[in-house]
Amino acid sequence: MFTGIIEGLGTLKRINKGRGVTMQIQADFDLTGVKLGDSIAVSGTCLTATRLDGSTFDVDVSPETISRSILNWAKPGDRVNLEKALTFASRLDGHLVQGHVDGIATVASVKADANAILYSFEAPSSLTYYMVEKGSVAIDGISLTINQRSDTGFSVSIIPHTAKITTIGLRKPGDRVNIETDIIGKYVEHFLSATRGEADKNSQMPGINMALLAKNGFL
Length: 219
What we know:
- The structure is a single chain.
- By secondary structure, the protein is α+β, with helices and mostly antiparallel strands.
- The protein folds into 3 domains: 8-84, Elongation Factor Tu (Ef-tu), domain 3; 103-183, Elongation Factor Tu (Ef-tu), domain 3; 188-215, no CATH class.
- 19% of the residues lie in helices and 39% in strands.
- It has 5 helices and 12 strands.
- The strands form 2 sheets. A 6-stranded antiparallel beta barrel has the order 1-2-5-4-3-6. Strands 7-8-11-10-9-12 form a 6-stranded antiparallel β-barrel.
- The mean pLDDT is 90.
């Protein structure tokens, strides 16, 4: 589990492709405290450190991760966002991020907006369905607040500090980014769908609907 508060950048040093994909990444910061088998979020993808050498670590990347994330187009020299796994003693400054990328969005535009930078993204409805205005989204592992959303995209405001210390400041129109939608919304939708399904099979079980919420004072 992560928070979406990036600890620093790293550089992709090497990619090996055989029966699977392995990558070597050099962090710009000290990895003291990280041990073999620990999780590290690499631009929003939760990967396991399989080798450690100072500030350099290796990871295995599964076919599922390759198919769902921008790591499919990764190349040596790429800069990546890095975050070590959350501990129970850590402050939760961003939001709960699993490092399980849901899909990919594309930068549509980048515009100055007073002291911020407004990034607009094109995204499939399968991603935007789980987004709400002023809700949270992880973009390349960065915890950000959604300004606006539609069925085909969304926008976020980036302050200069975030642009400076993460890869979002390097993104330009046409670039792809990893997207992880809010875990809470996904679970709520799943539970409600399951409840509706059970209600269809068992007429004695009313399930959750607008009428039930209104009857019990939630609307």
